């Protein structure tokens, strides 16, 4: 569930102009006082940019660990730019599918053979940082090689532990509503405009479900994934999920955040918990049986083909007591045990540069984290209003994590379905969840 | 070519009488195997047993904690639930043996055409990848759009959401387990059937035994060694249920905590919630359960297996 955005789209869609612009940006993203370098053709690959800086004579072979195969072409492009600067550093890209990524990383960490640079996500970050597996970026920030203010603050915070930042955000994702405008039209329900409330959302979903029930179509879906559903509503209600060493579930606000989904199912506006287990919310949406899917920006890549993609529009999340969305993003980190730390940090610096981020963004599968490089994502689906995901930055809250996130994630998966389905009162479930979660947090 | 016929082995025995103690040579020959077993099985088992008495850090490093893990384990309802689920699964999968016996006898009937075609058809599920099998069944079981509930609907039965209803989920998984084991059992039993001398049936026929009587008094008793083998293998593999369950139910299924097997419980403790010492304790319990069940079966075999 906390995967990086997946993409099935090949390269080549983004306009050539954008590519050229990204190449020109090379000079602007001057890294560590290197002299300006420019290349006029779009083939910025090896040798084109002959930047001369103090450390370009670095010689090393690095491993770069990541989990998303679909992003490899973009990564290779970035690496070509890196090698133009550091011809002596060879980077081997090491892709491990997400399902095995963390198991493998743990084994590598135990045997001190972690990749020199690798992808990190929020739920796992503190585990690695607290166990001294990651190199801090403190010196790179001091030297000006990395400027944390260029990335969303929520993401800097996500990769900071006890005041020390370890990871540089690479991309980000926020949550919004993917709406199927064709179903709205079919049900004769007006598409919501601008900000809207929880009540309006519930009413809209119920109207559509009532109208189109005979066709097996629902208005909305109470998917049981924290990041895309109940964390958002808990934040909107003013609650918390985890607060230091304490669970936030045992509060009235957090209970309201859960109750939102219980009500949605109870009114018939959403398929039941069982239905959503057999067929997940995103599957309901892509098969044209769901009018509103609350999901992440990464879902965009699933919409490049299929009948639904031509009638998609993005709406902001409805607001409870306040506006809120969950933000998460992958970061590049350097292993503390790396034998080529200087080269590894040079690579980390380069990935953090505007130039690299622009290249990554042009590939279209993810929203780059560097402020000002996101416009290509928003433009990648004309008419769908992807800008909503970027505007959501203003009220985004970081994905709730702790030192051993997975332990209480498992508790949520075990207990919350009973609350969603109405089998047990929400207050009972959240009370039990909070107690068990406190125990788990106490063990950390 | 020479037309001489040699009795295999006879020459060797004559030429080289067995001396007392063969020295180091036999050991050298089995050393590669022993080394492999030692490094990849025995040493890890010993380590797992040791780790089960420790609190194990996520990135290595363990501190001795005595019986803590076991104390926690015996009070953990998940242990008993997953044990019950595993036993239920094993019992259902065991049913494949009588079914396979029936089918194997049918396929062994003299004069049956296309016997090998049937054998291939029944064996295919066994060679198919469990994950692929699981995904197909996941679609069949789908509550809203699955074939199974559609067929049940035709006869007026409102089928449940098979893989998301506690209770139904483990049965659904077990049925797939039964189905995919069928082919293996049929092949093994078919081979067993071929070893029964045809004269026994002829003699039984002369004595006026019916088909059913022949099956009961000749086929089954003479097949008991094969059946015993199948029972032991099936029980061991069933107690290790993991891949089918994981792939059919999915890792975010809300019924997982109520439908998980012992090995899933182990996986979850060790690799999801990162409590590796606790997981080691579960692994030791699983090892003990499988070892004890197998030992009991070997003991019981003497009572019912022909020539056992």
Automatic annotation (TrEMBL), chain A:
It comes from the Bacteria. Coiled coil: none annotated. It holds the Pfam family SBP_bac_1. One of its GO terms (biological process) is maltose transport. One of its GO terms (molecular function) is maltose binding. One of its GO terms (cellular component) is ATP-binding cassette (ABC) transporter complex, substrate-binding subunit-containing. SUPFAM superfamilies: Periplasmic binding protein-like II (SSF53850). InterPro entries: SBP. PROSITE patterns: PROKAR_LIPOPROTEIN. The keyword Cell membrane does not apply. Belongs to the bacterial solute-binding protein 1 family. This is Carbohydrate ABC transporter substrate-binding protein (CUT1 family). It comes from Motilibacter rhizosphaerae.
UniProtKB/TrEMBL annotation, chain B:
The keyword Membrane applies. Signal peptide: none annotated. It comes from the Bacteria. PROSITE patterns: ABC_TM1 (PS50928). GO terms for biological process: transmembrane transport. It is found in: Cell membrane. Belongs to the binding-protein-dependent transport system permease family. Residues 82-297 form the ABC transmembrane type-1 domain. It comes from Motilibacter rhizosphaerae. It is a multi-pass membrane protein. Keywords: Cell membrane, Membrane, Transmembrane, Transmembrane helix, Transport. InterPro entries: ABC_transporter_permease (IPR051393), MetI-like (IPR000515), MetI-like_sf (IPR035906). CDD domains: TM_PBP2 (cd06261). This is Carbohydrate ABC transporter membrane protein 1 (CUT1 family). The keyword Repressor does not apply. The chain crosses the membrane at residues 24-43, 87-108, 120-140, 169-193, 220-249, 277-296. Its main location: membrane. The lineage of its organism: Bacteria, Bacillati, Actinomycetota, Actinomycetes, Motilibacterales. GO terms for cellular component: plasma membrane.
């Amino acid at each position: 569930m906390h995967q990086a955005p997946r993409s099935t789209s090949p390269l080549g869609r983004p306009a050539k102009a954008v590519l050229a612009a990204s190449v020109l940006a090379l000079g602007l993203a001057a890294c560590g006082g290197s002299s300006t370098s420019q290349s006029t053709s779009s083939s910025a690959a090896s040798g084109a940019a002959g930047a001369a800086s103090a450390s370009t004579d670095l010689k090393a072979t690095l491993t770069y660990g990541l989990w998303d195969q679909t992003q490899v072409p973009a990564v290779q492009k970035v690496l070509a730019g890196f090698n133009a600067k550091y011809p002596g550093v060879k980077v081997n890209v090491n892709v491990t599918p997400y399902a095995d990524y963390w198991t493998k990383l743990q084994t590598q960490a135990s045997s001190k053979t972690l990749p020199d640079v690798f992808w990190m996500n929020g739920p796992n970050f503190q585990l690695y940082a607290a166990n001294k597996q990651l190199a801090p970026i403190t010196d790179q920030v001091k030297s000006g090689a990395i400027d944390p203010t260029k990335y969303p603050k929520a993401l800097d915070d996500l990769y900071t532990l006890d005041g020390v930042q370890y990871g540089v955000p690479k991309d980000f994702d926020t949550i919004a509503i993917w709406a199927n405008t064709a179903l709205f039209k079919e049900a004769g329900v007006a598409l919501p405009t601008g900000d809207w409330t929880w009540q309006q959302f519930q009413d809209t979903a119920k109207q559509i479900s009532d109208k189109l029930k005979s066709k097996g179509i629902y208005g909305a879906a109470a998917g049981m994934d924290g990041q895309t559903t109940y964390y958002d509503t808990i934040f909107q209600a003013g609650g918390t999920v985890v607060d230091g060493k304490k669970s936030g579930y045992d509060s009235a606000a957090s209970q309201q955040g859960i109750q939102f989904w219980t009500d949605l199912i109870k009114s018939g506006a959403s398929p039941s918990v069982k239905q959503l287990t057999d067929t997940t919310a995103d599957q309901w949406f892509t098969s044209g049986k769901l009018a509103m899917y609350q999901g992440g920006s990464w879902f965009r890549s699933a919409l490049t083909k299929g009948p639904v993609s031509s009638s998609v529009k993005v709406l902001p999340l409805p607001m409870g007591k306040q506006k809120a969305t969950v933000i998460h993003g992958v970061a590049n980190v350097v292993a503390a045990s790396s034998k080529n730390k200087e080269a590894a940090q040079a690579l980390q610096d380069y990935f953090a540069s505007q130039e690299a981020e622009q290249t990554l963004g042009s590939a279209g599968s993810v929203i780059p984290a560097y402020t000002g490089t996101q416009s290509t994502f928003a433009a990648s689906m004309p008419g769908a209003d992807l800008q909503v995901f970027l505007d959501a930055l203003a009220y985004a809250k970081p994905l709730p994590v702790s030192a051993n996130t997975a332990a209480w994630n498992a508790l949520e998966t075990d207990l919350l379905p009973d609350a969603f389905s109405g089998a047990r009162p929400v207050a009972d479930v959240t009370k039990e969840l909070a107690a068990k979660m406190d125990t788990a947090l106490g063990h950390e | 070519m020479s037309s001489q016929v040699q009795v295999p082995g006879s020459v060797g025995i004559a030429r080289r009488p067995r001396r007392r103690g063969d020295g180091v040579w036999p050991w050298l020959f089995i050393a590669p195997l022993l080394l492999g077993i030692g490094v990849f099985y025995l040493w890890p088992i010993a380590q797992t047993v040791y780790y089960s008495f420790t609190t194990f850090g996520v990135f290595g490093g363990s501190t001795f904690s005595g019986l803590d893990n076991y104390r926690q384990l015996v009070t953990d309802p998940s242990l008993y639930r997953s044990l019950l689920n595993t036993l239920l699964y094993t019992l259902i999968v065991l049913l494949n043996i009588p079914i396979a016996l029936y089918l194997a006898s049918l396929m062994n009937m003299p004069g049956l055409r296309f016997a090998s075609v049937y054998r291939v058809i029944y064996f295919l599920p066994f060679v198919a990848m469990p994950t692929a099998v699981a995904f197909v069944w996941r679609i069949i079981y789908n509550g809203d759009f699955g074939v199974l509930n559609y067929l049940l609907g035709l006869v007026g039965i409102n089928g449940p959401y098979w893989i998301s209803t506690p209770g139904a989920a483990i049965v659904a998984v077990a049925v797939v387990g039964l189905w995919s084991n069928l082919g293996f059992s049929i092949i093994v039993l078919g081979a067993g059937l071929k070893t029964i001398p045809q004269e026994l049936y002829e003699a039984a026929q002369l004595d006026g035994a019916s088909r059913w009587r022949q099956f009961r008094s000749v086929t089954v008793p003479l097949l008991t060694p094969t059946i015993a083998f199948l029972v032991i293998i099936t029980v061991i593999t069933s107690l290790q249920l993991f891949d089918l369950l994981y792939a059919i139910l999915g890792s975010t299924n809300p019924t997982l905590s109520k439908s998980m097997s012992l090995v899933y419980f182990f996986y979850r403790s060790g690799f999801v919630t990162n409590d590796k010492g606790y997981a080691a304790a579960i692994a030791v319990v699983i090892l003990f359960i499988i070892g004890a069940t197998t030992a009991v079966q070997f003991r019981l075999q003497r009572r019912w297996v022909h020539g056992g």
